[in-house]
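Reply to dn_fold:

You asked what the input looked like. This is it:
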Amino acid sequence: MMRDAPLPIIALLRNPGSAEKLSLSDWDLLVRQARRAGLLARLDVLLKNQGVAIPCQAANHFMSAQIYATQFAVSLHWEIRLIKQALNSVAVKPVFLKGCSYAIAKNRAALGRVFSDVDILVDREALAATEQALSAAGWMPAAELDDYDQKYYREWMHEIPPLQNYRRGTAVDVHHNILPLTSRHCPASKKLLEHSVEINGEWLLSDIDRVIHSAAHLFHEGEFDAGLRDLSDLDLLLKEFSIQPHFWRNLIQRANELKQTVPLYYALRYTRLILHTPVPDEVFAVEEARSCGKLKLKLMDALFLRGLMPDHESCNDRWTGLARWVLFVRSHWLKMPFYLLVVHLSRKAYKRVIGKDQH
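and this is what came back:
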């Protein structure tokens, strides 16, 4: 679903300078779309970098988002320090993931980025020690889980149940992989840990692995509430890292090693289609040749070109709800084999009806 004229938020992510042409009604719509996408603070930075004057009617919204993002960044670094301090007692060096890693590395994808929890990756053999140390420091299970939910997390998924600090209310997700163990596309986590790098005193995935993880999270996990923000992350990461020698070749090779060629292809396709990310033609052609067939690709376009838009009425059409539902089912299909999927979705549907769905 490609529109004749891009949405205001898409137009500005492609070219912030185009804001000079916006009417007041366009600015009003932009604020609404950006707020739903979690991109108000990022757009504020991008617009200011271009020297764009934001009309006073919209300026307060951007300023408020930026103040919150700035305060969030201060709190985040304090939380990182406390997590490290807790894990030092058991000699575990966490690898920080996603938005947290962008902030530590000062990647462009950290611009105006806020998120609900800190994600860390540790060796699976260190899970028990990690959980025990975090518990001693005040991070407790965020919800009471029954036996099935415990089994879901601890035997099938790539993370233990979420933890929340009882003093500050902050959350940490402890991962031992980037995809569920039941997924046929699950990579070897040791390959990720072996290539981790130390930046500004913290351990992160390598630059290329950060791109691949971002692609895997967006196009495998099925979490589209912040889909456009995550696509913008990929756009900024690709632009930032592509100046490295042999970046594109190394990216494709690494995706093969980690069994992530499909989400990488979708990342390249939809950043290019939606945000006009400058992916070289030759790279795109190679990945497209190895992708799904034309019929399936048309279906995926119909789904992703809707699902990746902000969840706002101005961005939806009559098929958006169906597209998001199909993407939700697809994400579970990718997570687990059919016999587990039927049981899990049936149970999930029942718990949602009675108001006790936890994941």
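The two ends are 30 Å apart (CA to CA).
Hope that clears it up.
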